[in-house]
Every structure is written in structure tokens, then in C-alpha cells.
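#help-structures
NK: newbie question, is this the right format to request a structure? protein is Putative glutamate--cysteine ligase 2
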Amino acid sequence: MHPGTHRMDPAGARVVTRASAVLGDLVSGEFTQYQIEGKTPPCAGPGELRKELTRVRAAAVAAAREEGLRLCASGTPVVGGGVPAGIGDHPRYRAGADQYRALLDDFAISAFHAHVHLPDREVAVLVTNHLRPWLPLLVAMSANSPFHQGRDTGYASWRAVMRSAFPCLGPPPYAASLAEHQRLAEAMAASEAMLEAGMPFWDVRLNPRLPTLEIRTMDVLPDIDDTVALTVLVRALVVTARDKAVGGDPGPRTEAELLRAAYWRAARDGWSGAGVDALSGQILPAPVQAERLVEYVRPALDAYGDTGEVTAFLRRLTERGCGARRQRAAAAAGGGPGAVVDELVAATAAGRWPPVR
């Protein structure tokens, strides 16, 4: 972001070059030149993850400042760019632009991806089935993209809405086996709805290069403690699902239509609203759904010693709301979208939201 105009600046490649002098391949480009991607090495627990996230974030923030710019952790651009973004220098990005065309106009959206070590691909497919009904809640808890191109969209996660236009994004399909999972991916790739069968972009995917299950549902967050808490919650969810899958439970066959409705409601209302419980079809407040999730995964949270991280995160959500609420509060306090950018930039650099005023 340019600190004077609050507009995005297509300086991603330059910022990556500077940051990589410190981080190596833990920083890279993304789909547009408005974005960069930061990664951590594998971490065993929240303390190590917090340390690595802080290190990577600090180097990226410093690199942007050296270019006269600021880093802004938001799921969508609050204010548009002054010039066209330009596509990142990767064959897959160019192929995507050719295949999806105008759908990728202004597709400068930023996510938070969590990887959980799960090398058994057959088990990973069944774990994916267990995760599907909980994905809308992760959208609501992480919602941090209410503004787009200077306008309040009325949604808590406009990023989730933008992604829903694509045939290859969103919740993964139910699959009873790895072979069925691969067959579905290959059919989508043959139809050109997906670039490559071996590299799907579903919200939960078997990572094509790493022995991990990758959860891609969530908006990027400026607050590092929130990021850590959601990561350990996701780990507990994967571990709980793994144990069920190994025990012979292939996961619930949550209807795609109900899951789509739950996604949409979560994207619209975020943490402050009610949403569709995809397991029961009931309309429940997001905090009630979160309580159910914590009880569901509590044995795994307790086993890793992560329960305190998650309960503290839920307490913060109750006290200050999700990122969408913080962004709107900044706009309402005066200054409009520019004030939102300033708040996000400050939170991104500090690694935490400022105190509620």
C-alpha cells in the first residue's frame, strides 16, 4: 500500500527481492504484483509458530518500508490500485488468466493457509470429508474483508464471495476414496474448470508438493495471536478427523447445496451473525457453533496443550469481533476507507489489533 494514497502499488516483485535477502524462500510472489506470500517452516506448537510468524512478518514489513510502501493484511483491497496489477511471473498464473479471463480481473485477494502434516493420502481424503461441514465457521471466524475497491460490500468476507464465482474454488467434494477424489479432480481439469488435476484449489486439499493437508478457507489476518489460535484449532480438527477416519468413519455426506448456503451466510455475517450449521441445518449464532467445535475437538486441543490459545481467541472475538467488524469501526470513526487502511497497516506491522477505542 502507498501510505499517502492508501492505494495498492504493484511492487510485489521488488518487495519479495528485498525480503528474500533475509527470509530466503519463505517469501515469494503471488497472483498479482500487489501481493506477496509469506511462509513459515514446519512448526511443532504455538510458541514456535508465533516466533516464526513474527520473524517473517517483520522482514516483509521492513522490505515494504524500504520501497516507501506499507504491508496491509486484508482479505481484499480496501482501496483499489492506481494502475493495473499485473500478473505474477509464474506459468500457472498466466494459464489461469487465459482460462478464467475476466473472473481474474482485480483478483488481488489474500488468504491464510494452514498446513497439517498428514502423509497418508487415503486417510487425508476421508479427513477432508469430516472437515467440510466446519469450513463455513472458519470463514466466519476469520472474516477480514468487508471492503473492496473503496466500498463496503455489506459482507464480512468479500474474499469468500469472490472465490465462490469459480468452479474450482470453495469446499471440496465428498469422496469415499483417494481414487474417487482423483477422478473428480481429473474430470474437472478435463472440463477446464480446474487448471490441473494434481493441483486443485479447493478449500481443503492434499498439497501436491508437501505431505500435508492444506486448509485454505480463511482470510489473512493482521493479528498474529489470532493466526496462531486458528492454526492450532485447525490442527485439532484435522487430528480429530484423522482418528475418526482411521477408526472406519468416512465422514458425513454434507449436501453441497447446504454447504454452499452455509458458506454464503458465513461470508455475509461473519462472527457477529448467525449461520447455517452444516451438520444439522439449524440456524445458529457463530459463537454457539464455535462452542460446539471446541467441544468436538477438545481431546486433541488438550493433548497438545492448545486449549488456552483457542479459548483466548474466542474471548477476543467476543470482545472486539472479527476483522470485518474492526475494519468497519475504523471507517465509522472517521476517515472512511483510508482510515481502514491505516488501522490495518498499523495492525499488520505490530502483529496485533490496536486496543478498541
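mod (FA): yep, format's fine, and the C-alpha cells are attached above. Residues 12-350 form a domain with the Creatine Kinase; Chain A, domain 2 fold (CATH 3.30.590.20).
NK: thank you!
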